[in-house]
User: Fold this.
Amino acid sequence: MIPARCLTTCEDDEDSNSRVALILGEKPVCGEKTLLMAPKIKLSSGYEMPVLGFGTYALKGYQCLSAIHCAVETGFRHFDTAYSYENEKEVGEAIRTQIQMGNVSRENIFLTTKLWNIHHDPRDVRRICEKQLDALGFDYIDLYLMHFPVGYKHMCDEILTPLEGDKVQTTEIDYIDTWRAMEELVKLGLVRSIGVSNFNMEQVQRIIQCSSSKPVVNQVEIWPGFMQKDLVDYCRYNGIIVTAYSPLGQPNRDDHTPIYFFSEGMKRLVKRYKRTASQIVLRYLIDYGVVPIPKAGNPVHIKENLNIFDFQLNENDVRALRGIKPKPRIVKYESVKEHPFYPFEHEDEQEDQEPEPEPERKSRPTRQTIKPEPTEQEVDEGDE
Assistant:
């Protein structure tokens, strides 16, 4: 569980237009207009990040705009996008409109975006960061992540995945050199904090050993059945916060995958807590000590995803969720698995834990690209 000393509540930070409800199981104590918001955890850079974020992968155009508007008005303050998602313009536009409307201030928004693989050349890092700032319409980025340790050949900014035949064209650029260029962005004030995504323990350790600063965040795939305990424990030991993408395991109602999400055990938890399966999982992951960033396009689901701070799972149910049989990774980047910096070979092994039953206890111009992450399996209207 995230230590209470790392979290802040409405007494520490308030939007000018609203009083924020006290969280972590307490009933609202503020004024008539209240928003239930996620608590915050302090990064090693000194800045604070909400422990629940709003993912935007695969959200485009009007759907992206409307989802961000709804999320801000609901109480989300942590937003995650990326150059490769091709929606930075919409994300920035919606947030700026909410700021202009007086619903939130820029200081109370925590915005994450990412450096894509084609921009690993240190000479490209500042240029593309400034281009992303221009698309977002802001003066600084709260958290800037290296999206993947493997660099791709840069042909132009619009070709996200350069191909020769069906083979991805990669480079031998060392991610350490890319990281050092990202450190300069902090000194220039373009970004406040920097981190990585999809890095394994050895790669994170190499950055720590070879650089003047360590990542404040490692954003990786985590969901019940793929908890990456060793990596999470390693990052925790080094003061690195782990952000969890695909936190539900990309549920698909047609295929009933992943199994745990549609199991009889999960149905019992839904009935016991009077919460959705998504709410139960998000609460479980936050208590596990990671920061989930679920995506949602449906306003009902957006509100449900944030409404998880007034209940807690009992010890037996946490133990049951923890005992879900390990499953394979979803996001694999297999097209570059032969690259020396490919991060997943060692992490694909199942965690060393005894398999237990599923929880059933009673108590713009189109860019040429191959998607950097697999198509999200949808829950109802495109939620993850």
Notes: Confidence is low (pLDDT under 50) at residues 3-33, 346-382. The chain has ten helices and 14 strands.
